[in-house]
Write a sequence for this structure.
């Protein structure tokens, strides 16, 4: 469904999980006079094309009182233009055998279609139309905002681990807009108006604030000609200036407890960490730290042989599940986090101690060559495996471009990971996995209550 | 483009165009060439040559799904997850390191009907051979160490507890339970707290010896290896397996005799609603009419009656859908949504009205054409990656569907008529024998006065 991707990407994992980034054979880059960037990559394995339109807007562009407006607008983008009234967009794509949907993250709002390769024109015709001509009917908004609230109930309110994650992020970040949930606070959804969406649309939906990414069985020049035909006539929007909203320096660890009806406790330890910054133009100089953090994350949780699985799930058996994740590519500085659920008879405290012990180990001992080589072998193979998906290839190009990096960065990924040393991994562990960057959050389960199955009057047999 | 003049075309023209389109498609359909043979000891092999990327996807499927659990639900799943936790004298660390240091990915999976072991690896010869050697160890010489069993048991129990905090998971389990009653499909794959606690190592070993054997397996491969390599890989894998016997046939699913509504109290803001009954088996003669018909009803993603009536027109739910999930025996027909608790009555009645009216009247001509266009026009999307191709190969192979299933797929879709859909729905979806599951809070419902 609409926004299904945001479940995968944004809300649970906090988005920008851009790991691992594959190497690309060749991306063709074009720019229209109105500022629209078009990036095309040929992949003729199957007669299929994926087309994605990326807008530089998302929850990190929002402010108090209107959180969730980017995502709500994403829903309303399916509610019609003069040329293609409500429902027509999806109906036309469907009739053409296509799949279409959209996802919103902190740094982007993205619309996509997958189609048989000769039908790319349909996507361009529809997407170019709704880039500037959206109607935003008030009656449709009143229904759609209820759908969005149902989505929030489903994703967050009734899911204790998602709820914990939302609270953790909102606690970790004080001034950075990464403290906002992508879907928005319920109160803001209650108060949202069609005018909020209209202003947002007018400001951000313009060719100079968008990137079109096409991957599939297509000829780059033909794609560019089509882009010119459909997106070319669109007027350029006003230049967009965004206020700088950097996170203030944290003074000491933060700790938060979330009480929620749940069965299992869980724990998140979130450290503020830097992300990849644009390097020099010729890419000869870059900051190695994000790559070292990426390797660190792989050492801890890059598979069943990694330390968390080997030492915490097996070994001491303190965790029923334990994971680590580093968000290396986003517009603003982001986080490295470890999270998990204690095993039976173990407590949150036991799990926290075990996590801390592992992090101290990273700070005091060099990782073994065997582990380092394992992470690197995985990165090399993942680079091949990811090419099995045209969608994912387009996603990587789009995300890098939209967060202010370049798609060319993907070409350097494997090589830079391969250059990481054990000393560098230790150095980033020492520098960033420290108390003054830490937020620690715990889900404290409240009783779920009696779950006695009841039979309705018509009922017959058994229940749960 | 033709999409803009659709209103100008009369029905005849549309059908004519559709036929043209259909013809086009059947000419243009690039379906994978599935090669099939048997190993020396009789294990069927299905192989697709995909030379573009230097990688191989391999899946070994055993007729060892959770429907073979017998009195101890959860046995098949516990076993499947234990294969790589100790084998041939190596412990879990050694086994996982052996795969991952090559960049290979090992996976295992249990469904109701089957259990699988999967490997994704680069095809560089040295890497490939090492990964395969490790895989052989895992499938042919698992040790099922006691400590690994206890650890996996404890983790399974935590997983079962985790479902208690998910209204969606509670609803799914209750749905299967109410649909299948005494049939093995009634039990969750992971088992129940009681059954998982009761499984002994001996049960695991017996299950393994009975079902993880050459006569009860099939092998599917998609990747950049040639036929000779594929043959040699299949031989290597099967020679290490015991010959064994094919698993015996299981009891069929019985149809429900009456409707049944189950309510489960849960402190959630939304109530999850699932409605359904036993539906289709794989290879069912009614498959295509029901598949196409359901596409109109609730299977078309953002374009379906349920999506339109429940979400688009009324804003009642984020998702609203229906599907048939064909299995070896009648898998579920299922329609579902989630809505805040004070809207349950309205949502449920819209859902039921739409199901009932579809059974009575079927789709309109326009809806049928639109759905067929979506399904046939989107055919290439089903096969645009090695992993999707592997999924189809395994389905075709495991359920004994014709090897030209993909080639004839669009023609089978095109052939479906409104009369066939109406007839099939009338016979196969019976509104007086539906299970309805509601998981949510009754307190809130009363408070809101509905």
């Amino acid at each position: 469904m609409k926004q299904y991707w945001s479940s995968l990407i944004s809300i649970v994992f906090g988005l920008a999980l851009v790991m691992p980034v594959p190497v690309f054979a060749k991306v063709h880059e074009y720019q229209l006079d109105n500022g629209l960037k078009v990036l095309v990559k040929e992949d003729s394995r199957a007669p299929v094309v994926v087309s994605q339109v990326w807008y530089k807007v998302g929850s990190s562009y929002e402010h108090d009182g209107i959180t969730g407006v980017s995502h709500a607008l994403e829903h309303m983008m399916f509610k019609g233009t003069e040329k293609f009234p409500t429902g027509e967009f999806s109906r036309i794509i469907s009739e053409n055998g296509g799949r279409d949907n959209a996802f919103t993250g902190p740094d982007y709002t993205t619309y996509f279609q997958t189609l048989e390769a000769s039908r790319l024109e349909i996507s361009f015709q529809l997407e170019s139309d709704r880039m500037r001509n959206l109607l935003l009917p008030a009656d449709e908004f009143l229904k759609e905002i209820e759908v969005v609230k149902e989505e929030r109930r489903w994703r967050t309110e009734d899911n204790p681990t998602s709820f914990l994650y939302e609270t953790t992020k909102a606690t970790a970040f004080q001034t950075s807009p990464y403290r906002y949930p992508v879907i928005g606070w319920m109160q803001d959804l209650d108060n949202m108006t069609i005018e909020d969406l209209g202003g947002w649309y007018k400001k951000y939906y313009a060719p100079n604030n968008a990137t079109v990414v096409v991957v599939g069985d297509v000829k780059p020049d033909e794609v560019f000609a089509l882009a010119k035909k459909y997106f070319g006539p669109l007027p350029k929007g006003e230049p967009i200036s965004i206020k700088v909203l950097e996170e203030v320096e944290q003074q000491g660890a933060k700790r938060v407890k979330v009480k929620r009806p749940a069965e299992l406790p869980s724990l998140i330890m979130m450290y503020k960490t830097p992300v990849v910054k644009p390097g020099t133009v010729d890419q000869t100089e870059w900051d190695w730290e994000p790559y070292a953090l990426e390797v660190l994350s792989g050492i801890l949780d890059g598979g069943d042989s990694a330390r968390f699985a080997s030492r915490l799930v097996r070994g001491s058996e303190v965790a029923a599940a334990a994971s680590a994740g580093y968000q290396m590519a986003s517009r603003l500085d982001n986080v490295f986090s470890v999270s998990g659920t204690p095993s039976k008879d173990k407590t949150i405290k036991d799990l926290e101690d075990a996590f801390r012990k592992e992090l101290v180990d990273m700070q005091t001992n060099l990782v073994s060559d065997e582990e380092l080589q394992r992470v690197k072998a995985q990165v090399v193979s993942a680079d091949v495996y990811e090419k099995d998906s045209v969608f994912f290839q387009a996603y990587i190009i789009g995300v890098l471009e939209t967060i202010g990096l370049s798609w060319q960065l993907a070409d350097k990924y494997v090589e830079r990971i391969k250059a990481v040393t054990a000393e560098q991994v230790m150095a980033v562990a020492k520098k960033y996995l420290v108390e003054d960057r830490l937020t620690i959050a715990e889900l404290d389960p409240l009783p779920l209550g009696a779950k006695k199955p009841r039979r309705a009057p018509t009922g017959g047999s058994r229940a749960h | 483009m033709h999409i803009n003049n659709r209103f100008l075309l009369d029905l005849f023209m549309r059908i004519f165009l559709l036929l043209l389109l259909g013809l086009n498609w059947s000419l243009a359909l690039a379906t994978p060439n599935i090669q099939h043979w048997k190993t020396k000891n009789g294990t069927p092999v299905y192989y697709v040559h995909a030379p573009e990327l230097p990688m191989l996807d391999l899946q070994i499927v055993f007729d060892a799904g959770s429907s073979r659990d017998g009195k101890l639900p959860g046995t098949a799943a516990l076993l499947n997850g234990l294969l790589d936790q100790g084998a041939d004298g190596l412990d879990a660390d050694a086994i996982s390191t052996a795969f991952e240091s090559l960049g290979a990915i090992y996976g295992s999976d249990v469904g109701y009907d089957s259990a699988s072991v999967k490997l994704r690896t680069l095809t560089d010869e040295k890497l490939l051979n090492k990964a395969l050697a490790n895989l052989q160890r895992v499938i042919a010489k698992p040790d099922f160490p006691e400590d690994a069993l206890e650890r996996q048991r404890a983790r399974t129990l935590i997983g079962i507890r985790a479902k208690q905090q998910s209204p969606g998971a509670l609803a799914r389990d209750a749905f299967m339970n109410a649909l299948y009653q005494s049939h093995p499909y009634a039990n969750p794959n992971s088992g129940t707290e009681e059954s998982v606690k009761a499984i002994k190592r001996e049960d695991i070993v017996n299950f393994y010896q009975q079902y993880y054997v050459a006569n009860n397996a099939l092998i599917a491969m998609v990747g950049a290896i040639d036929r000779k390599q594929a043959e040699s890989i299949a031989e290597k894998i099967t020679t290490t397996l015991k010959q064994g016997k094919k698993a015996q046939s299981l009891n069929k699913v019985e149809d429900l005799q009456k409707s049944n509504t189950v309510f489960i109290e849960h402190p959630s803001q939304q109530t999850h609603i699932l409605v359904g009954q036993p539906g289709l088996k794989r290879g069912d003669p009614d498959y295509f009419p029901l598949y196409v018909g359901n596409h109109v009803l609730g299977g078309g993603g953002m374009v379906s009656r349920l999506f339109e009536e429940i979400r688009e027109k009324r804003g009642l739910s984020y998702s609203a859908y229906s599907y048939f999930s064909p299995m070896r025996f009648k898998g579920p027909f299922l329609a579902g949504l989630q809505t805040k608790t004070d809207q349950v009555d309205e949502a449920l009645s819209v859902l039921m009205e739409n199901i009932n009216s579809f059974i009575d009247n079927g789709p309109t001509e326009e809806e049928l054409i639109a759905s067929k266009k979506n399904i046939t026009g989107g055919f290439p999307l089903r096969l645009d990656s090695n992993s999707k191709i592997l999924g189809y190969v395994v389905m075709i192979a495991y359920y004994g569907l014709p090897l030209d299933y993909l080639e004839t797929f669009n023609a089978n879709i095109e052939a479906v008529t409104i009369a066939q859909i109406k007839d099939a729905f009338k016979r196969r979806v019976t509104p007086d024998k539906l299970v309805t599951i509601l998981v949510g809070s009754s307190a809130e419902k009363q408070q809101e006065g509905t």
